[in-house]
Structure formats: structure tokens, C-alpha cells
């Protein structure tokens, strides 16, 4: 972070404000992520007729894990210690760049769709290497499955956002959001609706939710994401969980603001920031609730059907881009 | 229905001593005639090692025992493995526990025995004494390795992440497809058969309820039937009706649990939540009917006792709940996509392996001890629930249909109950041997006991259907992918404790 800050110290006059808002975004996402996981568990439990754990349970678990001693599996290398850090760091940088609370994050000029998607990919790769590091059968199995899913979902994510970029004639995320604010009619355009469906599929896959992965299972052989982190405990596990939670909040926030950006701060004033904050929280809660309800109403797909679902998402994304190019 | 008389149901058990060399001919003829090898029990009589082969068929109910006497110093018997796959399993068990050598056995690897056991220690022989010191070697269990490009192994267990029993599974896998799965069981071998020895017959029922915790009633009943036959006790039909109600309640409770658990393993949590609600209702009903949520204590040698009967309204409410649960699961296309065509056990394989119970009926085999070996004449009108597909969906459907049939049966049985306590009060003191066959919720349970003149048990042999059905799981996994294993395993839902004994 310091490197990024010093190299671009000569930016616009509102630089200090921009740094402040980006830090705010990271802090909000860091807290909102675990709360969203807790909220989703709560919604699922309620829909199934159970009481369920409190919404703050994941935060409490993180607090407990952080206090524990770091225990690493035998034969692990530096990868196992670095991977959780890389995951969290990449999620933080991506969060700082993305228009979540404000359309003026720091380094807005560099907040390109490719940069954000590849930052997320960097975290995915770190996690996959982490799964392989301990040399256990489950870790390797999880990494192999995660990469198979990621190989289709990451391009779909990129192409789906590209459909919006074509419409806004820029691949800069804050600029896409600003352009959407200026042209409310775009929201109902065909390429946007197609891209929205594609993005929802991708977000479910990327965050490891049903029907792609089941985060609450205890069955080792069916796991995707859980299998990769089986060997972690204590602070390492806390980092991985926090990183995954941030990615969830980031992706949901990105989807919300790309398609329905209203409420986001575009002036940089204190009042607007506060409104942006509240509106972001509301959007995240609604989206997370919807994802949880989808989880309740469906079951986990057979692993070999997951690529079919994701390929469907990818095709929709490609159609969205094509539609955008044709109707331009 | 008249009490104390059931001439049409009285099981015909014949017993004959055969020379070891004549065993294959005699047993082979019975197997050819449609009998199945239900139980093989070893006995150390001091002057001889006696092996009893129980073959049975039905309907009509026929039970044949072949006894072979062997030299205690070098016990050896011709292997029946060429005639019957179950025989090969029984012989491996007999070899591990009694040191009886099955001559001509094609695959005499340890089954019960884990590698830490001292090589010359046969725990069911006389003078085996207390458990000796185990060796340090806990690593070397040989598995047939599968070679080839891209083949790797996934070892799972014996300790698992969920609250399930211990078993070690080793998968040889290419990509996600299972080439071969080897199961290593007997981690919960408690020596329970030995624990029966020397106890009065009325004490054994407590132990039999704990053979496999989820099958307390059916194991207790099989034990009681065996004891009653050994003592020559005629138990009135009124007691058998009460017993049948308890066993059917056990079937309903466990099947409902499995229906939910299968959905849960497919990631369909809402069905599991519904099933658990139903299960709790059934457990509370069991608690009120028998005084114990797991149906312990209602069945005793000579009789049975209930506290109250399930009412028609309660049964109807449960039937409605089960109907909703099944509808919820079968109307979900993703769930059905997971179930249909997964882990198919063909009828041919099922017959060759000799599987029992739900698994057999889901593969098109109409086996049901309630029909083949009925103990209560109200059960004779039953027809086994049979599905043909042999996949997870078929095993799900068999369970769902059996719950409905059992609920109807319980309603019918309660109509015949005059008193909540029935049976004979005093058990005679005499020796003998007896056989008990009961269709538990997993499948056919067989107990064989021997009692001495003082009314004490000298030997109890238990066969849980899991023992004969476990090998079929590996066979059904061919062409299945690794992430579908938990679903396949759950659809079999075999007992580890009942298998390991």
C-alpha cells in the first residue's frame, strides 16, 4: 500500500479525501463481509424453520481464531504462510479501487475492470497453491476443483463487466458507474440484463455458494473451497475466512453498484459519503439475503454439471457484449 | 387370531451333523435350491471346534443348520467360497476369530483382525484370555494399488468430520472418477459376541439393544426370538403384535432420518430440516410408547410391554409430514439429478454379493424377512417394496414407500392390541439352541444363541445385514465420481457397529 501511495502522491487536489474514502471502503468491506456470511446463515436457518446462529457469529469466530496459536501442517512451505496474506491483501487493494461507497476512490484512474478482476484472480491462485502446499489428498482435490471452476468463471466475470464497458465506452469501473448515473435508461437495456444474469452466476461460483459449492458441509469428498483450507487453523484460518468474506462483500457490492448505482457518493462530501455508506449496506444485505434464499430453494449441483452452469453464464456474457456492440 | 397357536407360522428348523468333507455337497445343494447362507457361527467346545452353517429360505419359512465338528488343534473346513460370496466373508471372519482354516479359500486376507493383533491370538477360542498387548504396527494394511497415468489415491477416515462411525476408505481415482474403493472396517470391534457369554438369557437383551444403537428394537427382537426357541417358550401372538409395532416404529424413524440425510448430502438443507422435525416427533412418540426414545426396554425374552399405543391421529400426522418431505425432494430437479443414475448396483451384482434389506429391494430383489420368516401372523399380508433401478433414487424411493407401508401396518397392528403387556412370566431353565430372524430397518438380522442347562448363554452369534451388504458399496461406486461418494454411502447407510461387532 505504501508503495502505491507514494508513487501517486502527485494526484488530484482531493487526494487526501480519496485516500480516506478508500480506507473507509476497505474498513466497511472488512466488517461487512463476515456480517454478510452471518446474515446469510441466519436467512437460511429462518427459511428452513430453524433459529440459526446470531448474525455476528462469523465475526466472533474470527476474533476467537485470531487469538489462537498459529499451527501449520507438517511439510508446509512458505506458501502456506504467504497465501492467506496474499488473499487478504489482493482483496483489500481491489476493494480500495472499486466504486463501492464512492465513485472517487483513490487511484480511480487505475481502477480498470481488468485490474480488479485480476486482483481477485491473484487471490484465487494463492488459495489454490495453498491447498496444494500441505500435500494432502483433500487439499489437492479442492485446488483442482477450484481451478476447474475458476477457469470458466473468471473469464465470464470479465466478459460480463465488459458488456457494461462497451456501453459506457470505458473499462474504468468508477467511470462506468458515473456514466450509468447519467443514463438511467441503460439499466433496462438488453445487454445489461444479460450481463446481470451472467454476473450473478459467476458471483455464486466465485464465493462458493450452493448450487456450486456447499460452505456448510462436513463431507470432505464433496468440498471445493473448504477442502483447500482444511489444513489451516488459528490466525491463518482467520485471514482466509476474512479474505473470502471481503471478496463476497466486494463482488456483491460491485454487482449492486454496476447495475443500480444510485445512492453512491459522487461528490466526496461528508453527508454524501454517509448516504453512500448506508445505501451500500442496504444493497449488500438485500443481495446476500437473496443469495441465501436461492441456496435454500435449490440443492448442490453434481460437480460435472457445474461447468455447464458456468458455461451458460459465460455464453450470456458473450451475448451481452455482442448485443452491446451491435446496438452501439 | 388365536393366542398361543400359530401352526402355519411355526418355523421349521432342522439340524444335521455333516462330515467336513461332505459340507460343500450338502450346502451346495441347499444353495442351489434357493437357500441363502444366513449365518456361520464357530463354537469352541473344548474337545472340538464346532461350526454351524445356517441356511434359510422362504416363504414358506425353512431353516437348515449344518454342523461340522473339527479337530481343535488344526481346525480346517472346505471353503464354500466357490458357491457363495457371503460364505467367503463368513469364513474370513471365522479364520480371524477362531483360527479355522477354510481350505481352498481364494482370498484369505484378514477381515476382522487389524494388523496390531498378535498373529496367533484367536479371541473367541477358549483360553484366549484377556486382550493381549497389541503390536506397534499400525501402518501396514496392504491395499491393491491401482497403477496408470493420472491415478492417485484419496485416503479418507477412519475419523471423519461429521458425527458418523469410523471407517477407512481408500479411493483410487482418475480425475474425479472412482476406479476402485477399498473399505477398511472393524475399528469399532468391541468383542460383543463374547460379552454375551456366561450371562443369564434375560440379561442379554440389554446387550443386544446396543449392538447397533439405531437398531435397538430389531436386534433385541432377534435375540429374544432366538432365546425363546432355545428354551422352547411359546410366546403368545398378543406379545408378537406389540413387538411388531415397536420394530415398525424403528423402521419409520430411521427411514425418515435417511430421507432427510440423503437430501442434506445433496446440499438441500430445507428437506433435512423438515426430516429432523419429523424425527424428533417420532423419537418423542417412541419415548411415550416404550419409555425410551430409541425404543429400548419394550421387548424382553418371553414378552413385550408398551406404555401406550400410537394413536391414528399421530400416525396420520406423520404420514402427511413424510408425504410433504418426499414431495419436496422429488419435485426438486437438482436433487433428482443427483439421485438418479448415481451409484447403480445391478440386480446381478446384488444377487451375487448377497445384499439384504433396502439395498437389495432397490436393486429389484424382493427379499424381506417379514415375508420369508414372519414371527407375527399379521405380517404375512405384506408385499416387499421393490424398485428396479438400483441407484440412489431407487434406495430413496424404497425408504419413502416403506415408511408409508409401515405407518399403515402400525395402524392395523394397534387395532389388534387388547393389553399393553403380554407374554409369559417365567422362562424355563433348560438348555438348547435357537435362531431368531427379524427384518430390521436396514435388512434381515439373524441371531443364533446357545444356552446351557442353567439358563446361561454359552454363545451368541449376530449377523447384521450390514456385514453382507458392505462389499456391494465398492461395486456400486464404479463409474461414480468422488463428490458423489457421500451420497452413495448415505443411500446404503450401513452400520459400522453392527458390522464390526
Write a brief structural summary.
Chain A is mostly helical and 328 residues long. Helix content of chain A is 70%, strand content 0%. Chain A has one domain (21-327).
Q: Indicate the percent of residues in helices of chain B.
A: 25-40%
**pLDDT averaged residue by residue of chain B:** 89
Figure out the total of helices of chain B.
16
Unreliable stretches covering 5 or more consecutive residues of chain A: 1-13
Q: Cα-atom Rg of chain A, whole angstroms?
A: 19 Å
Please outline the major beta sheet of chain A.
none
| Number of DSSP-assigned strands of chain A | 0
Between the first and last Cα atoms of chain B, what is the distance in angstroms? 38 Å
The main sheet of chain B comes to: 4 strands, mixed
The rounded distance between the terminal residues' Cα atoms of chain A is 38 Å
Please write the string of helix (H) and strand (E) elements of chain A.
Answer: HHHHHHHHHHHH
Shape of chain A: globular
Give the uncertain stretches of chain B in residue-range form: 1-7
Total E-strand runs of chain B: 15
**On the 0-100 scale, what is the average pLDDT of chain A?**
87
Q: Compute the gyration radius of chain B: what is it?
A: 22 Å
Tell me what you see in this structure.
The complex is a heterodimer of chains A (328) and B (501). Chain A has 328 residues and is mainly alpha-helical. Chain A has one domain (21-327). Chain A has helices at residues 2-7, 15-47, 57-67, 78-97, 113-133, 137-168, 173-182, 190-206, 225-228, 234-259, 270-297, 306-326. The two termini of chain A are 38 Å apart. Residues 1-13 of chain A have low confidence and may be disordered. Chain B is α+β, with helices and mostly antiparallel strands and 501 residues long. In chain B, 39% of the residues lie in helices and 18% in strands. In chain B, α4 (201-208) packs antiparallel against α5, α6 (237-265) packs antiparallel against α7 (269-290) and α8 (312-330) packs antiparallel against α13 (392-414). Chain B is globular, with a radius of gyration of 22 Å. Chains A and B meet through α6 and α11 of A and β7, α7 and α9 of B.
